[in-house]
Amino acid sequence: MTPAQMKDAILHHLVYTLGKDAAHAQTYDWRMALSFAVRDKIVDRWFEATRRTYAGQHKRVYYLSMEFLIGRLLKDAIINMRLEEAAIDALQELKVDYQAILEDEPDAALGNGGLGRLAACFMESMSTIGCPAMGYGIRYENGLFRQRFENGRQVEEPEDWLSQRHAWEFERPEVSIDIGFGGHVQEIGKRANWYPSEMLIAMGHDTPIIGWRGRWGNTLRLWEARPMHGFDLQRFNRGDYAAAAEPEALARTLSRVLYPDDTTEQGKELRLKQEFFFTSASLRDILRRFESEYDDLRLLPKKAAIQMNDTHPAIAGPELVRLLVDERGIDFEEAVGIARNTLSYTNHTLLPEALERWDEGLMGRLLPRHLQLIFRINELHMKDVGTRKVTAVDDGHVKMGELSFIMAHRVNGVSALHTELMKSTVFKDLHELHPNRIVNETNGVTPRRWLLSCNPRLSTLITDAIGDDWVDDLEQLEKLEPHIDDAAFLESYAAAKRQNKNDLANWIAEKLEVGIDPEAIFDVQIKRIHEYKRQHLNLLETIAHWLEIRDNPNQGWVPRVKIFGGKAAPGYVFAKEIVRLTNDVAKVLNSDPLTSRYLKVVYPPNYNVSLAEKLIPASDLSEQISTAGKEASGTGNMKFALNGALTIGTLDGANVEIREHVKPENFFLFGMTADEVMERRKIGGHSGQAIAADPRLARAIEAIRAGRFSPDEPGRYHGIVDNLVHHDYFLVCSDFTDYWRAQREADTAFAAPKDWARMAAFNTARSGWFSSDRTIRGYMADVWHAEAAPTVEDAAG
Ligand code: OAK
């Protein structure tokens, strides 16, 4: 596509799709016009991919996920379609600011954190590889809340990404599926009829997901809840207007909001309804497609692989069995076999508070037939394995992890360490009964978004050095290794980072009115706020360091900017206190004339995918400091390493594998191992001991306790202090001393810029393995038994 053709296409959409005259068009109108122009190009390739999937009778992968944390789509689409030059030139001619257009797009924030972002990376990788796939989820009207700070405190505001027209989706009113809840069951022989008492409709909305070079395109189908019977005219005519609209409002509630809890289970009825709603709609859509092509349901596992992204879609097991037994007359045991061979399950956390358990009473009321089937599935499993030791139903609850395990032919962890911990802890008994079921598929990230698109300076440098094959074969980055010995290359590498840091410093000055020194170490911790992720460990080190600088302000300190980003779940009191403390610490430190040139703290509000794309390319140091054994994998850690930030981290999740790849000398390791953590917890008074042994830690805690960061309310953080001193389940105090040591090592290393640049470049060169393309190939081989289809030729740029 030439710039002139692009310009014509934009103007065409501006006038005929948006009904706007160029003279009056706003940024929004230009953005929509550009999006439609790009979308047109995508649609042809998307159709072609679908045609090929049908023609080749390829096995399809179905990724069921409650969350897809996509972020913005426009730039991603432009880059993958190789249309950037055309778009920039066309817009220049039209005198429209390209960057402003990109920034105008709201993030699609249909997820909380890691699990949702992983699903988005997987969708992009499956399209790049040419794996015929479809993502299924919920089209939340309100995505993850927007975060604002008011006097340092987090305030949540509703997110409304759909208040403007969404350029990337196609409404599919013809794909409307009835979903029932409640009611009663009538058993007739081996089958049953379920008569729900409440019905609503799931309507599909399709977003094309285009892969690199436009060689393949898959679909993300998101369900919107709609009422079965819209509006009650009788009531309206009687003048009861609110009641007339009630059924509609009630049904729509189901796809209204994303639950804002990351790795905590709330056990709410609406949540269970959301889970069943999207899972059932997806399965029935899958079966409808399958039955349009094949007439033998026993072929299902050969032609479809259904992945359950954590236990949120775990009702897929019993629902698929129900659809096969009650609606298609297949024998129960055979149905369980078909379902199991089709389904697989990914576990994303072992935190006890995250493991879903549904009250039997609630489940029986909402899904009476499913509860019956769960009991039968459970009995059958116990019979098959010859023991009653493990059970999916216990103590009046259905345990969704166990149910998922029993109903899946493969169960996977998301990093090597996490997978081993699954085998030895939560799924120990099940693993012993089914020793081949658990496999590891270490997470990955898409290099298109997380390097090519977000870091153009580094991308250009890489391409100049080794060509552009790295974009879809990220392990090619190893070819950079010989260049690392070249002083000129290293200088360019450092220059790219410096320019990214300058950009970020300017952005922070403008948005937060805080001046930061681009020569300082940019030390970044961005992720959900959670005790196990230990933002408070980072804060304690910050405070201790600040106090030490104050003791001796004229000793040449290595300047540092600590950057935090992340949201706390609205009901998670401790996490919200950490948010507030971070802001209070920032206020005191940034205005301290003795220290502020050496140490600043910035906490931009509303951390999201787009902000990550700004921060990561400008980072020097990546904070991956969770209590060992608690972070299943992490994926931010991979994005940082790829973009040349050095990690300061524990032996947790994928950090272990990152360290092996980038080599131990290019990684700041500290802290206890997962085994040591388990041992340490057994010691009564472990935190008191740690505090007594380290005066720096004692002084930092005392500063918080005495109200140095909350002079107007000295007791504000006594909750945090008490927790640290008396409980400290996540062993912040016990890891502090070693963390401090590693931080000082980072200072020393940063003071030798050439050595630092070499270590950073080595991180980039060795991060290729962390591409989600590699992860997807692993799933295709070990879990889905699916093959890539022959892809379409490259999109002409
Ligand atoms: C969210 C809700 C329930 C259960 C797990 C999560 C979740 O986001 N887990 C995260 O998944 C990521 C992707 O696998 C991992 O990288 C994170 O370590 C894990 O916390």
From TrEMBL:
<comment type="function">
    <text>Allosteric enzyme that catalyzes the rate-limiting step in glycogen catabolism, the phosphorolytic cleavage of glycogen to produce glucose-1-phosphate, and plays a central role in maintaining cellular and organismal glucose homeostasis.</text>
</comment>
<protein>
    <recommendedName>
        <fullName>Alpha-1,4 glucan phosphorylase</fullName>
        <ecNumber>2.4.1.1</ecNumber>
    </recommendedName>
</protein>
<dbReference type="InterPro" id="IPR035090">
    <property type="entry name" value="Pyridoxal_P_attach_site"/>
</dbReference>
<keyword id="KW-0119">Carbohydrate metabolism</keyword>
<dbReference type="GO" id="GO:0004645">
    <property type="term" value="F:1,4-alpha-oligoglucan phosphorylase activity"/>
</dbReference>
<keyword id="KW-0663">Pyridoxal phosphate</keyword>
<dbReference type="InterPro" id="IPR000811">
    <property type="entry name" value="Glyco_trans_35"/>
</dbReference>
<dbReference type="InterPro" id="IPR011833">
    <property type="entry name" value="Glycg_phsphrylas"/>
</dbReference>
<keyword id="KW-0808">Transferase</keyword>
<comment type="similarity">
    <text>Belongs to the glycogen phosphorylase family.</text>
</comment>
<comment type="function">
    <text>Phosphorylase is an important allosteric enzyme in carbohydrate metabolism. Enzymes from different sources differ in their regulatory mechanisms and in their natural substrates. However, all known phosphorylases share catalytic and structural properties.</text>
</comment>
<keyword id="KW-0328">Glycosyltransferase</keyword>
<dbReference type="Pfam" id="PF00343">
    <property type="entry name" value="Phosphorylase"/>
</dbReference>
